[in-house]
# Entry
Amino acid sequence: MRRYLSFLFMLPFIAGCSFTDNNQGDKMDVLSYVNPFIGTGGHGHTFPGAAYPSGMVQLSPDTGLDGWDWCSGYHYSDSSIIGFSHTHLSGTGRSDLLDVMLMPTVGKLKLEPGSKTRPGEGYRSRFSHDEEVASPGYYKVRLRDYDIMAELTVSPRCGFHRYTFPENKDAHIILDLSHHYASDSVLSTSVNIVDSCTLTGIRKTKGWGEPGEKYWVNQELFYAIKVSKPFHADITTDNRRSEDKTATGKEVKVAMNFETSKNEMVLVKVGISSVSIQNAMDNLSAEIPGWDFNDILTQAQLKWEHELAKIKVKAPEKTRTIFYTALYHSLITPHLFNDVNKEYIGFDGKTHEAADFKNYTALSLWDTFRSLNPLLTLLDSNKVNDIVKSMLAQYDQYGLLPVWPLWSSETNCMIGYHSVPVIVDAYFKGIRNYDVEKAYAAMKHSAMQDGFGIKELKQFGYIPYDQYNKSVSTALEYCYDDWCIARMAKDLGKEDDYNYFMKRAMTYPTYFDKEYKLMNGISSSGSFRRPFDPFFSSYGPSDWVEGNSWQYSFFVPHDVQGLINLHGGAAAFGQALDSLFTVKDKVSGENVPVDISGLIGQYAHGNEPSHHVAYLYDYIGKPFKTQEKLQQIMTTLYTDQPDGLSGNDDCGQMSAWYVFSAMGIYPVNPAEGVYVFGKPMVSSASININNKVFTVKAIGLSDKNIYIQSVKLNGKNYNKLFITHKDMAEGGELEFTMGATPADFDGAVLPPSVSKSL
# Structure
């Protein structure tokens, strides 16, 4: 039995989270196929702790606070735990949050965490992965230094701890408000001992940026903590002991002290809010009114079962684990960001009410617009509406649509205005429970600002590399976003806007260097960059963002046919794709982005710009090559081990790619409403789309039978290499017949993507 399941036999009551697998005629426990440890090793940057689907709280252990691979606070390579904090980012390349850290201990009181090399010098505790279990909504670990069993679960806005102590006269629960990631800063914290079982306070931090940058994440979090056992509190403030019941400072720490009997369970529940201490208390009272840990765990499990069972797959055990863990990671973000009374702090620093929607934050849009957001249009149209409304709320308060919002701040991390494809995709799929005209106005305004290279784009008609750093990556992504705006403008009857933004969308050939048949920087005088190294990338001066020319030269998802034409036709384009996958897998330059990982040649699956590329063979009538590449990617770059992701999961984007691809379909153009055929990894996948079921079957699928031989839709022969969202939303069945040799798809209808005729 897998370790992440063993807790099912240890708890007195666990919800029966299972569904009937009609393909097998038996019950399948969907939660048992989620392994939260996948991605916690390598460069995945995920965390193993307890989370609620798109919840405000992510209650997880922290093992390290420095280094890129510790962005989530946890890395599988570690052997000691600092404590358990209540907010985490999943799979990101930057760290933040890690708020309200608690750690249970016994023996001599220590208020410093200690180090990885000498954990005994502080309150940190050693642990073994053999005594660590995790599943959706639940985490458990034995703290070896103290013989304490720690268990965690969550509600949407609260964390719930259950600590089983040994007999000890000196038992403690430490609250360390100075706990933070190395590159972040604690601005101020406070605590108030309300009574012998209750603490409240505030924690204000600054992160996600470098000194001197205009945009910071200024995060103010209010908390309320209740303990099931009366305690005596010792408070230190900036290393000085306080005799008061209240304290304020940058390094406020509280030791809650008591005696325990053998195997005594002490429970702690924590509510958080961005608005006030009272709201944190109200969140706690509403979501965890009592002390029944198993009941709250059951509620979390039932919610996860409901979400994960929206896709029911038949596949070998290992593939199911990879699939459902990917689906799980796809549903952790975005994060809920309003209290039970609907209040939240906006981007203007004022209190707002999300009257008719759930307000969401942690929108990693440069990553997630590619496949995670399209996946949500299949699984949860209500959440999509709420995401768009959250975007429009930010527009009202901040003046622009989101780029990468975190809590009530805009990080402006990464490039593009990728709220646009999310809104346009929702609009054309009929998801429109928001002010459409306002949404369009917000898109247009964000695309017409003067910042982030747009001034140069308007001035020159392209973005010169000698006028703006990261020019080509930025410009290519703007081209796509502008195509999305043009598409919606046309549908709304705004012809002038349609013509303007379509013209901007079609400026991508400006960067196509015919000598190299690759995208290249171009100067304000109209000259291509020379000398030119297509393998070059850098965090510093460069034409590229987390990539190089090889990886960005195929990013024209709105006009693949136009890109094919630039290469001189289908044959030459196919050769260019072949070269991408076979050239040397080295990246040149100083300060090369570590994000460029999962390399097959120069195809970099560990980062997002490459995610659609394997599907481009379909556009030249060579689907067998798409199938070969996808087989290689999904069997070598996704595993069921802690290092089972080839790069940052990026708030679920890496995982959402797998969810789509394992079902045999993928949204190459995320706002087109079209899913291009790939290579399935599961024998069947039934998707519940607004209470209508669409099933994808792969007849004869095996390790050798990786090639699609023929396709049927609803029992009839189907001669297209794609399917529309509309067809899927109506319910039905798509059937792939698989074989061991490439099939001839001459005459098949290729995926749509033809320049201005769109």
The CA atoms of residues 163 and 266 lie 5 Å apart.
